[in-house]
Amino acid sequence: MYTHIAFLLLVVVLLHASAAIAAAAALDNSTDLAFLLAFKAASTTTSGGGAAAAPDRIIAANWTTDVPFCTWIGVRCSRQYPPRVVSLNLSSFSLQGTISPHLSNLSFLSSLDLSNNSLSGTIPDALGRLPRLATLFLHWNLLSGPIPPSIFNNRSSLVSIDLSHNNLSGSLPTQVMLPRIEEVVIQSNLLTGHIPAGLARCSTLQLIYLDRNKLTGSIPSSFGNLSELVELVLGENQFAGAIPASIGNLTKLQHLYLGFNHLKGEIPKEMGNLVNLQKLHLHKNGIVGSIPISLWNASKMIVLEVSTNNLTGPLPATLGKSMPFLRRLLMAENALSGGLDFIASLANCRVLNYLEVTTNQFEGVLPDAYGNLSMNLQYFHVSHNNISGRIPAGLGNLSNLISLKLGVNELRGTIPRTLWRLKKLQLMHLGSNRLTGSISSDIGLMTNLAEISFGDNEFSGQIPDSLGNISRLQQLDLAENKLSSSIPLSLWSLTGLFRLYLHQNRFEGLLPPQMAKLKAIGYIDLRSNRLSGNISSALGELQTIQYLDLSNNSFLGQIPQQLGRLINVGYLNLSHNFLSGVIPKSFSNLSYVYSLDLSFNMLEGEIPEGKVFLNVSIIFLMGNRALCGAPQLKFPPCPENMITTSTSIAKLRLLKYVLLSVVSVLVFLACFSLFVKFFMRKKAKASSKEEPLCLNYHRRIPYFELARATDNFNEDNLLGRGSIGKVYKGSLDDGLLVAVKVLNLEVKGASRSFDVECRTLGQVRHKNLVKIISTCSNLEFKALVLEFMPNLSLDKWLYSQNQCLTLLQRINIMLDVSLGLDYLHHQHPHVIVHCDLKPSNILLDENMVAHISDFGIAKLMLIENKSTTSTNNIGTVGYMAPEYGSTGRVTTRGDVYSFGILLLELVTGKKPVDAMFTGKLSLRQWVRNAYPTAVMEIVDNNILRTELTNLQQRSDGVDILLRCLSSIIEVGLHCSKNLPNERLLMRDVVPRLQEIKNGVLVN
Fold first, then answer.
1. For residue 445, is it within any domain?
2. Which among 361, 277, 269 is positioned nearest to 314, based on CA atoms?
């Protein structure tokens, strides 16, 4: 009987226990839900990019109690009952706010990935107490504060941790107890202090990334005990001391990055034991001695970079045979010496694409056999050595070369003709040698060149006129040669040119007004030539110029008042000429000048007042005959009648020029009327003939070639479609890639749009306008053949999940568009208004240079009033100026309005037709409400994520970014004002954007 009673009691106890366990499990399951909701509440979200289904909106709609939390996006649960949260993956979901410490209560959580968001605040210490956590990914956020010690003292299951690309500060936790850890990635933060010794006791470590911090001390020799280590990346810190010899014990090591530190001593010979090493980066240190012979045993080496050290001695002649898989060999800025035989051995490295041995002490000649190097070679840099002989013709075989640097050597002879075959070359530096001969006109075939540096040689003859074909040229240095004749007019058509150095040659003639086309120019040095005549007032149009030197020539006449418009100039030298008259009063406006030299001319009259003329250290006026005033410069006071006399002389000169101008105009009008009659007759005859093929802009393309090029206009080649047609990608018979815009002639207005675009594109030439190659037109088919833009439209880049523009890229695009509009509005002989500026009409070439496209509704303005009335729909909603809808008046100010909206869109990542803009709230009003106190709240998250990471090493990084973004917004708001007359002109926008870009580059 007692046995039965005991059995019944046991059953009752077990039933109660089961009920308690079930109740506890149910409670745990419900707490998972509560903790997830707490996380959602803390990590407030933002709608980014204006996409129809932005990730943050998906979470807001999906994470509700209407459905089981195990079905929520990013949540994965266990298969047990009741299910528990084991994984939370919300990478790239536009989250912001903070990380809720309640996540630490998800006791079954094994994987947490919150990377690539905008989360801020600190990392909760409680995360380190998750007993099952194996992977913790918080990289690419805005997290700050120290790393919680608990994360490095998780004694159980943590395998991989990635906290990189945040703003974490303080030192690494000193207590490290991670028995299963394999990957520690904390690069690109603000960490200080030493590497904790305990990290070397984590014997399972395979990957350590601590680069781009502010860590100090030495590299622990105990790292040699990490026998499983495959990648050790400690670069861009402040480590000192020697490279520990124990590193040679890491026989599995494939990647060692110690660059950008303060390491001293020699490369330990034990590193020759690293037989699996593929990437070795030791650059930017203070390493001395020769490279140990044992290191050349690393036969799997792909990248060897030891530049900017104090290495000495020769390189082995068999280097290329020892390391046949080399892709990049960078040894610049050392004291390496000996011959160049090692370069010939690199012919064995069939994938070599980068060779950099500049600034060493190598000597010998470059044999023609160098043409046998890898056809993948893109960078061949051997400048700043003691190399003699001739430039080998075989270099012309390296058809994929992008950059060729042979400068500052002892090379002689002429440039071999084979070099002009390098059509992909972008940088060609041959300066500071002893090269002779003339510069071949074939240089004009190298249309990808961005930099030409031939200065400090003995070249003679003329600058070839074909140089004007290199439309992408940004720097031209032909200084200190024996070049003569006049500067070709084609040179002034290089609208993208930024630096022009022609000093110390024998150039003669005048400086033409066409110089004003150099809209991007920053530096011009023409000193010590034989140039003469008056200084053109067109120089005053160069709003971006910072350095201008015309000294030691034979210029005469007065200094143009327009030079006072060079608002960005810092160095201006007009000395040692024959300039006369008075110093322009407009020079008082040159607020950025740090050196103004007008000495040794024939200037007279009163020295103007103003800040420039008060600073004795920056003004040079000696050697002029009759200057007065400015007692601080020790010139005598001016006579009382000086101003009157000068005014009378000026009036006489003005009268002479007016009479001459009137006579010239009358003669011109007579000649012009005769020319117009002749031209109209010729045009009438020509128009009566029917052209069955494409119009001959640059080439003639039959319809059948266009059909072949586009695979009979196959939809697979469709780039886009618009209201009046489609655009196809095509490859012409000669391999040229083009965009073929085929019009749907059934759409009303299509033919007229075709005629407008043909007429407009046919008469414009600018690097930031899409170029027409040809047209094809008959009664049943009309198409424009345009240059192909491989990076498609700005719209695609702004609203793609897979692509992201940096702040500098956005500024460059804005500057490109402004230059294109400035040309249409102010530089073209006839004012042209685009009328439909928007991101989809801005195309990007392979170098991300912006080109304005789609001129189908462009307007040709009358020069007198620069306006017209349109009866058509002009522009696109959101970008269209208010006056278009109310008055129909089309002016250049309408384009300025569209440009202003575009600037605001680039900063915010919001389309002007975004769903959030309803009622009276527009994109402009939204930005205006936030400016200037809440700018960072409206900025595109992609900008914040990338730029704050780039600036994290600076304490004033946020302030720098804020100033830049505020400057862009200010221009955008000014351009998009409601009243047209209150908007800026594009000629005033360009220098403002150039100044913003310069500020970004400096910082």
1. no
2. 361
Residue 7's pLDDT is what? Answer: 45
Instruction: Let me know if residue 191 belongs to a domain.
Output: yes
Distances (CA, A) of 991 to 540, 544, 844: 13, 6, 22
Q: Contact 560/536 with Cβ under 8 angstroms?
A: yes
- DSSP designation for 552: S
In terms of Cβ atoms closer than 10 Å to its own Cβ (0-12, 13-18, 19+), residue 734 is exposed
Give the type of residue at 523. Y
pLDDT, tens digit, for every residue of 436-446? 999 999 999 99
Among the ranges 179-188, 763-772, 786-795, 847-856, which has the highest mean pLDDT value?
179-188
Do 761 and 910 share a structural domain? Answer: no
| Residue in 56, 211, 836, 914 annotated catalytic | 836
- pTM here? 0.63
> Is the same domain home to 964 and 862?
yes
Could you give the number of structural domains in the chain? 3
514 class by beta-carbon count within 10 Å (0-12 exposed, 13-18 middle, 19+ buried): middle
- 3-class DSSP assignment, residue 684: helix
* Residue 491 pLDDT exceeds 90: yes
Contact between residue 125 and residue 150 where contact means Cβ atoms under 8 Å apart: yes
Structure-model confidence comparison of residues 286 and 712, the more confident one: 286
Looking at the fold, whether 774 and 815 belong to one and the same domain comes out as no
Q: Which two tokens stand for residue 968?
A: 């862009």
Q: What local confidence, expressed as pLDDT, does residue 477 receive? A: 96
User: End of a domain among 257, 281, 305?
Assistant: 281
778 & 815 share domain: no
Instruction: Determine the Cα–Cα distance for residues 188 and 215; give it in Å rounded to an integer.
Output: 11
CA dist 344 and 419 (Å) reads 19
In a domain, 924, yes or no: yes
Report the residue count for the chain. Answer: 1003
- Does 708 share its domain with 819? no
Instruction: Find tokens 């709608």 and name the residue.
Output: 47
Q: Is the pLDDT of residue 496 over 80?
A: yes
**Cis peptide preceding 932, ω within 30 of 0:** yes
The per-residue DSSP string of 101-164 comes to GGGGG-TT--EEE--SSEE-SPPPGGGGG-TT--EEE--SS--EEPPPGGGGG--S---EEE--
Q: Give the chain's mean pLDDT.
A: 84
Q: CA–CA separation, 323 vs 277, rounded Å?
A: 11
Shared-domain flag, residues 243 and 259: yes
Q: What is the CATH number of the domain that holds 879?
A: 1.10.510.10
Confidence of residue 858 (pLDDT cuts 50, 70, 90): low
| DSSP conformation class of 400 | T
CA–CA separation, 700 and 702 (whole Å): 7
The mean pLDDT of 698-726, rounded to a whole number, is: 78
Q: Which of 281, 311, 330 is the last residue of a domain?
A: 281
β pairing state of 842-844 and 850-852: antiparallel
Sheet containing 434-435, strands listed edge to edge, beginning at the edge strand earlier in sequence: 288-290, 310-313, 335-338, 361-365, 386-390, 410-413, 434-435
| Coil vs helix vs strand at 460 | strand
Residue range(s) defining the domain that contains residue 965: 794-1002
Return the CA Rg of the chain. 35
Task: Return d(Cα 902, Cα 880) in angstroms, integer.
Answer: 11
- 319 is a domain residue: no
User: Contact, 197 vs 217, CB < 8 A?
Assistant: no
Cis? peptide before 316, omega within 30° of 0: no
Strands 190-193, 410-413: parallel, antiparallel or unpaired by DSSP? Answer: unpaired
Tell me, what DSSP letter sits at residue 771? Answer: P
* SS3 call for 730: strand
597 labelled catalytic: no
Given a cut of 50, is residue 712 above it in pLDDT? Answer: yes
Q: Which pLDDT value is given to residue 435? A: 96
- Co-location of 749 and 884 in the same domain: no
In the predicted model, is pLDDT for residue 231 greater than 60? yes
User: Contact, 794 vs 844, CB < 8 A?
Assistant: yes
For residues 893 and 975, membership in a common domain is answered with yes
Residue 280 pLDDT level (bands cut at 50, 70, 90): very high
Cβ(376)–Cβ(400) below 8 Å:
yes
